[in-house]
Amino acid sequence: MSVGMAAPRAPYACDPDRSRGRLVAEPPSRTRSPFRRDCDRVIHSTAFRRLKHKTQVFIFHEGDHYRTRLTHSLEVAQIARALARQLGLDEDLTETLALAHDLGHPPFGHAGERALDECLKGDGGFDHNAQTLRVVTSLEHRYPEFGGLNLTWESLEGIVKHNGPLTARSGAPIGRYLESGGIPVGIADYTKTYDLELWSYASLEAQIAAFADDIAYDAHDIDDGLRAGLFAVDDLKEMPLTAEIIGEIDRHYPALDEIKRGAELVRELISHFISAVFTEASQRLAAAQPQSAHDVRHYHAPLIGFPPDVAEEEAAIKAFLYRRMYRHHRVMQIMGDAEQVVRDLYERYRQSPGDLPAEWIEGTEQETDSERNRRIGNFIAGMTDRFALIEHHRLFDSTPDLR
Predict the structure, then answer these.
(1) What is the pLDDT of residues 193-206, one digit of tens each?
(2) Domain at 1-231+319-403: CATH code
(3) Per-residue pLDDT reduced to its tens digit, 22-34
(4) What does the similarity note say (predicted)?
């Protein structure tokens, strides 16, 4: 089958008609599947709109051409839907997970996440996946009969487990959660109410969304890094994959300017990775022969991934970006200032709760210190970059301009 063609619905796809349902039962829609309703709820959420003003990778100067969390999420959804269509998966569930995956990110990208994790170290720390779960299960206030968005079990599972199981069957944390001291508190608490089976793999739709995130991140951070002048197209020739792509571009278009060379590189890179994931997934599925989404969840390994050689190519790109972009001295300076803004805000609200908006104070008199600290963390995590700076300027005499 051609990579560009839509496959018929596969037996291992998640079937919206057989969804495990919602925590709070709702009558079915006459016009939309459960997964389509989930996707629409994410799109119409306040948290999704706020992604417009949250940075994707915090770079040393802002501009309208750089990625935000919102544009990144849209690009992830485009890649994820393309793969889901090729593999015969449910596109609506895939899109839901792609659009929702960054809802829990705080302001200032990874700098903000590091700062909040440090501030909340004694209260369970901060994990953006756990925060995304909080957003869609409680922090959104749009419906009269329930908190959050009341998404289907499949959407919640995909949000939490798109990178793989969090625990062994016994409940013991595994992987990075073993190394970090346990399951994030927001996930651990929620699964006591609604069991997301943290020991199993997520659906193929969720696994696809995770790899679409990696593909979009790598390709588009290259685009933003080029635009910011942190490196040039020819600097990327140090990696065999990008050197080969650039060589082909230069042979076909010898007079192309730098902007178009970079854009062509990004397009070719995305196509290369999508094709690689499709080919590898097809081979894994042919070997595993899953007959249902249940079989996918209970298989002993992920069924979506890069071939080993492409995984090495992708890791090389991440290493390049880490050295040349994420650790660039101008970026690091801004990240340090951004982390301090978050730490300042957290400590100010902790010492002076009256500086929080009234709706974030009401009914908190009986809260423990830990509950109050987490509430402050939730408030800061929901901020956009711009609002965090406005709040800092309101509460402090001096605020860095982060440029």
Answers:
(1) 999 999 999 999 99
(2) 1.10.3210.10
(3) 999 999 999 999 9
(4) Belongs to the dGTPase family. Type 2 subfamily.
